[in-house]
Write a structure and sequence with these properties.
single chain, alpha/beta, Arc Repressor Mutant, subunit A, 2 domains, four-stranded antiparallel β-sheet, elongated
Length: 221
């Protein structure tokens, strides 16, 4: 059974979400402030987080960057595009505007949990690329491609989030444990090397640059 953490200072919304999720076979955890949320997350590892922005103490915007490796759906009354884009670039997996339809929220939760299941898979596939997270083998059109440790870490992150633009800072942060030598000045070089190696077997550009933001897997592939 999956566990979902609800971080919302409104006791009525928190209780409503708890009841809704438990009726749909999820376990729940609750926090009512940013500080309480961080303490809760230090003691528990939920499968997904529902995060309100207007929290006492630490705001949701300040809590979000401190959450690692757990999908976060932001819940907020802020409906402007700029706020949504910034939160998504700062690490949110999805954004739903209050007030929301509970059926839509449940669908968004199911989608994010399904993505996590794919991301945790030993084998990742995108177009003609197959990547094995255990053996570190990569093939393009069934031809093996040798990647460096840094190149493999970058490709793995992009393939785990194939429809999402990953910012440069997020890439560097996520791969820092495996490849601490990678810096922003060399990131573009590593991406170019991956593309060059892939072109030996395919004319397709599998990775695209999103100007001023970062990189993503190309939908044109």
């Amino acid at each position: 059974m999956k566990t979902i953490a609800i971080i919302d200072d409104d006791i009525y919304i928190n209780a409503m979400l708890t009841e809704l999720l438990e009726k749909n076979n999820y376990k729940t955890l609750s926090a009512f402030s940013g500080t309480e949320a961080l303490y809760m997350l230090s003691e528990n590892s939920p499968d997904l987080i529902l995060l309100d922005l207007m929290l006492p103490g630490l705001s949701g915007e300040k809590v979000l960057p401190k959450i690692r490796d757990i999908p976060v759906i932001v819940m907020s009354a802020k409906a402007d595009v700029h706020s949504k884009v910034k939160l998504l670039l700062d690490g949110a997996s999805d954004y739903i505007t209050k007030p929301f339809d509970t059926a839509e929220l449940l669908a968004r939760i199911a989608v994010q949990l399904r993505k996590v299941s794919v991301a945790n898979s030993k084998t990742l596939e995108f177009s003609d690329i197959i990547l094995n997270t255990e053996t570190h083998e990569v093939t393009v059109k069934n031809s093996p491609v040798r990647l460096t440790k840094t190149e493999f870490a970058i490709l793995k992150l992009l393939m785990q989030n194939p429809s999402q633009v990953i910012t440069k800072s997020t890439i560097l942060d996520r791969i820092s444990l495996d490849t601490p030598d990678c810096m922003e000045s060399s990131l573009k070089v590593h991406i170019s090397n991956i593309r060059r190696k892939f072109r030996e077997y395919s004319e397709t550009d599998y990775i695209e640059a999103v100007w001023g933001i970062g990189f993503k897997m190309s939908e044109k592939s």
